[in-house]
């Protein structure tokens, strides 16, 4: 909360310098304030739904058993590629999406589809890479102090389970940003209700058979299904060509699977699952993954070729 307050203060100071006079005014009846309040109501409901699902999952994780810790560690690991890759893409696309709303449905649909493909382009292979390298990643990051072999095995099982949903998680959140660009917070609320409902139901069903890994599978399954629902809803409401997007996502998934096979066989005989050996195994896996997937993406995916072309053009200027 303090960090958010500091960021708001910095932004306010910049705005204050860029215009002649800025001061807060109490105008609760102003149309802009009333519209913001209406939009925020759905957003508050969105947050409440997430918190309910989180409480249910944490209680299913058998508090005191170490499952909660394993689940939390796995979730944090998942946030690294999402934050570095997917959020970076979403941040750059939001202004374009908002501007495209005024230009017309066709421009908006094209930009939204491209953002979805680019999000999948970076998060699908990250998902596969984390799944394949889960054990050495856990050993490299967490195997210190009282973190023993049993804890490593438990955490690895959750990381693998949750990694299956990384691509869906990132695509889902990008699609919700597309709705937000339209000033629509109502649709994300209802889609999120479905996602959390699926997560809770799957968690209850899977936790007895698979333990805390079952909660990871529930997370992955919920976001994959919710991403599909969000895509269909976006296509229905805003004319995104779903068939083209699905074909591109399938091509990205195939490339990610091929990359995973290459990473699996190239890294299994190198290093170990703890200490420097784990770092070496993960490093080699990343290098092989980038090489294999980069070559595939440059040849078979349209957005990768467009991106590389634009970067080359900029570098030559």
How would you explain this protein's 3D organization?
By secondary structure, the chain is an all-alpha fold. The chain has one domain. The chain contains 12 helices and no strands. Helix 2 packs parallel to helix 8, helix 3 runs antiparallel to helix 4 and helix 5 crosses helix 6. The C terminus is likely disordered.
Tell me the layout of helices and strands.
Blueprint (H helix, E strand, L loop, with lengths): L1 H17 L12 H30 L6 H37 L1 H28 L1 H9 L6 H15 L2 H16 L4 H25 L1 H27 L3 H26 L7 H26 L1 H15 L1
Helix pairs in contact: 2-8, 3-4, 3-6, 3-7, 3-9, 4-6, 4-7, 4-10, 5-6, 5-11, 6-9, 7-9, 8-9, 10-11, 11-12
Q: What brief labels describe this structure?
A:
317 residues; mainly alpha
**What percent strand?**
under 5%
Classification by helices and strands:
mainly alpha
Helices and strands, in order, run as: HHHHHHHHHHHH
**Unreliable sequence segments:** 311-317
Give the overall average pLDDT. Answer: 87
Cα radius of gyration in angstroms: 22 Å
Q: Distance between termini?
A: 43 Å
Percent helix, as a range, is over 70%
Largest sheet: none
Envelope shape = globular
Strands, count: 0
Number of domains: 1
- How many helices? 12
What would you say about this model in short?
By secondary structure, this protein is an all-alpha fold. The protein has one domain (29-316).
